[in-house]
Description:
This protein has helices at 5-15, 55-77, 121-134, 138-141, 150-166, 172-182, 226-235, 238-251, 260-282, 285-302, 308-319, and strands at 21-25, 34-41, 46-52, 87-92, 98-103, 108-109, 193-195, 204-207, 210-214, 221-223. The chain is an alpha+beta fold. The chain folds into two domains: 5-105, Phosphorylase Kinase, domain 1, CATH 3.30.200.20; 109-319, Alpha-Beta Complex (Aminoglycoside 3'-phosphotransferase, Chain: A, domain 2). It has a five-stranded antiparallel sheet with strand order 1-2-3-5-4. A hairpin with a 2-residue loop joins strand 8 and strand 9. Helix 9 (260-282) packs antiparallel against helix 10 and helix 9 (260-282) packs across helix 11. It is globular and about 65 Å long. 38% of the residues are buried. It holds the Pfam family APH. This is Phosphotransferase.
Amino acid sequence: MPRSPLALAALATVAVPGLDAYDVRRPAHPGTDFDIAVVVDAARRRWVVRAPVHPAAGAALEAEVELLDALGTASDAGTLPCAVPRPVGFAHLPEGGRAAVHAEIPGRSLDVAQLVPGPGLCASLGRAIAAVHELPTSVVENAGLPVYDAEAYRARRQAEVDEAARTGKVPPTLLRRWEERLEDVALWRFRPTVVHGDLTNERILVRDGEVSGILHWGDACVADPADDLSWLLVAAPPEAADSILEAYQLRRTELLDPHLTDRALLAGELALARWLLYGVRSGNDDVVADAVEMLVELDEHTRPTWDDEAATAPIATVTASYA
């Protein structure tokens, strides 16, 4: 049973000595792995309390706390051009694990549909994501979070496709499309970087036309940088996506990755396979039906040709509803 906002406020007062809770409310997008509340103290300062709802989330929180310390140092130094949560206190939970409290980062959730191409917010987005990918991989390694090389990550994606195929719910022509791309060795020659791992509009905060913060780092790892760009390529207006990619490439110091966009678009397609698998594993028939409907639509749009140029536009249309 989810913890009530009042119970979360009580945890916040334990975690932060002297915090005098004046008001408490649920955030607009609470998530599923954590009970979350925003606590307002008597001085009108706002605090976010996060309590894991299962042991796996608790373990992820502990690794995230370790990572956030390093990310906070990068933010202070300007290496990371936005804020990250900075835990200031913890409260032990009766069932084990602990809740964490951090000051709320000012800003509102990103509205991808309203992005306008040019040097403003799109450029800030591109630079912020690029800065994450430029961080030393040691920040992830030292936190005990996953580290993949390019081949291991390709194999991970292949395993997901194989599992999705075993459900019998993925159209055969779509499976062949994915198999061809996964077997294309050139496509998977990339330098793994630090990646956030779960970027969505709810994870990115915006203030005064710039990215002000990035939240929820529990899925961070060293992996394919294309994954952090995938959701933007499928959800943002095409011209805005071009501006984001241009700013991103200008901020990166490594040589141009010629297949970055191809892998990002493929990641958008494979997100539907993961959505299907989530529905199957959790026994949620509504999720399964939703995933199957989108997979069939994607198959219909991509079946006429294997040419990437023809496939790119419909991929963005179909997967935007998932992103």
